[in-house]
Queue: 2 jobs
Job 1
Amino acid sequence: MKILHLNLLIFIITPWIIQFNHPISSSKKFIVVLDAGHGGRDTGNNGNGYLEKKIALTITLEIGKLLSKDREIKVIYTRKNDKYVELNKRAQIANDADADLFISVHCDAFGSSKAFGAGTFVLGLHENDRNFRVAQKENSVIFMEDDYEKKYDGFDPNNPESVISLLLMQEEYLEQSILAATSIQNSFVSVLKRKDRTVKQAGFLVLRNTYMPSVLVEAGFLTNKKEGAYLNSSKGQNSIAKAVSKAIIEYKNNINKSIENFNVYNGDIDLKVTKKISYKVQIAASKNKIGTFPYNFKGLKPIHRINNGIMYRYYYGDSKKYKNAKSDLSKAIKKGFKTAFLVAFLNGNSISIEEAKKNE
């Protein structure tokens, strides 16, 4: 019950970032921020004498090199050399770039040298103790930072309950994060024939404040002698980079198709005859089913909740005229829903705003 109340509190106070806030079009490149884990005084894990920070950087730079061949993609790095970058700064770089995807590259470690295989993570609750240990290892780097208690709001990498406070920071993008992670994981398995460690959820600080779909890649285990040698080799690093870049391009193309179809009406109904058009303001999207009471949405009403089978989307207002809808949008933004946007409907089906305006 305490966890439920905390989730509800976070839902109310979190600035909502909507999934389709980064549409892909011919006028805007698909921006990928690549984050090489660790760096500088933070070496990462040193299984079998290998340096995680060095291997992660080499793989990341190669991924960027391959992605840059695609004219629709712009690549930005959080680091391009052996330097230390704070976790919050990595997220800030991605947010400032208005990125469409954030990928953080790491190498795994385990107490047993038998563990092997590549895995991908998105932000979420730890499903088991192993997931918590992976996140704990990556999050412990904050102890190297000055005033880390203040910077990370008292987050304790050693306390599983701290993760609860991270959840809804990324939940708006969970669907797309899982799609990106799944694309990468499938590429590892189908292209490289790596052991499938599947897509998992865990509480990674580096993913917490990124306002876009975000994935953390564990390329393999340095603590496994054979896999460590593979990860440290040019062949292994290039193969991993090719698999990841291929998956990112596939993800970009799939999302592009989805967004092209989103809010587009393809039916044969004569809009001028039907004319049952309405505008709503989308203010939030979440896996959680929240009561549509005004006190849950900073006093806004009416609130409509629509479920697509995966996510609940929450809308404010119901206007028949575009100018009235714009007024609703302004009100929602003033209330704190900074990334709210208008959605038009025809008989309950979403259509483009321009099509709706033409047929008011």
Job 2
Amino acid sequence: MVEQPAHTRYVASSILASAIEAMLPSRVAQTIRERSVLSPGERVLVAVSGGPDSTALLSVLRELVPRVALNLTVAHFDHGWREDSALDAQFVSELANQWGYRAIVGQAPANLPRTEEAARTARYAFLRQNAAAENCTAIALGHTQDDQVETILLHLLRGSGAHGLAGMRHRTADLARPLLDVTRADIELYLRDRRLTPRRDPSNDQLEFTRNRLRHVLLPALDAFDPAARRLLARTAELLGEDDRELEEQARRLSPDLIEDPAAFRALPVALQRRLLRRLDPGLNLAQVDGLRRSIATGSGTQPSASVSQRTTPVSPRLRVVARPCDCDATTFRARDPVAHVDADRLELPLQVQQRRPGDRLQPLGFPHEKKLQDILVDAQVPRHLRDSLPIVHDRAGIVWVVGVTVNESRKVTPQTSHQLHLEIVSD
């Protein structure tokens, strides 16, 4: 084979790069259309840090406005962790002004803990507050395919199931990710072609952060093993996401009465058995789900009565609470999650699992005042016969977590939280 001259290879490479750059907006437009990421005429708050991904996001959406008819507003959140962070805000404001968009700049409180979790919580709170103020129904984020791969690997290392391994979605409620099919390499080519020079955050190279270690240590080793690994992992997440959505839809259509019929329950695929039980009893962990699943399928043991309402897990002497440090995303927490996340510094240890007692009170997550536990359980539609056997986690000061119902507002994770705990009920 005759080798091409160097200048010919350079020209061919340049042509290929230009083709990739020119195609990027069209590819994103196709993703937006096929994935229903954004709707024509939608008001969108674009989160722009000033880094490569978010700068490219704003530029691409700007190019697509004639085709998709979006109403864009720019938002930048300054964590204030770097001496030159104000320059990031200035860069974003000037870029937005140059392109005719209003820029909203937020500043983190001075006492914000220097953790990934605290930063993420404060940033999303700022974005959602301003999206509401601007009547925006979507918050556009610059997550790329590389971010997706990192998320999948983080979830895999934490032992997540199919839902976690499905990674991020192109659109989840108000969060839109138009660049989720785009690689960082494509982003860099696009920025170079548009002569855009983004800001570079040196903290992205600091290995003290888990995601940075994964990005700079694990992923290069994975690339050396198989150059196609990232693309294949992203594809795996897409396939798992499709399966996860279908299984969730099937589980929603199942009648709760199936748990009263061992033969009918046994006829369900195991995946649907698990999802049905988790839908009815979100306080169950995997071991409890499988124990209850086998009990129902064989017709042995005590079977819970069916209810379409939120269900909780009966206490037994074999249940205990396990607490471990974590940096989970607080923006994803829900009161009825099967696990809880609390501020460790607000606890008065030790933690114990107990049953409810007369006169129990707590301030439910998101409520401005205390309520009787009895009223909380009624509002949550917990069946009467389960209320006295409900697992409730206490510390020395009172109730911390009513499993599958709510976390005490006074123990919740906030942007000021510096030590976060993940709580889970396990059986010995």
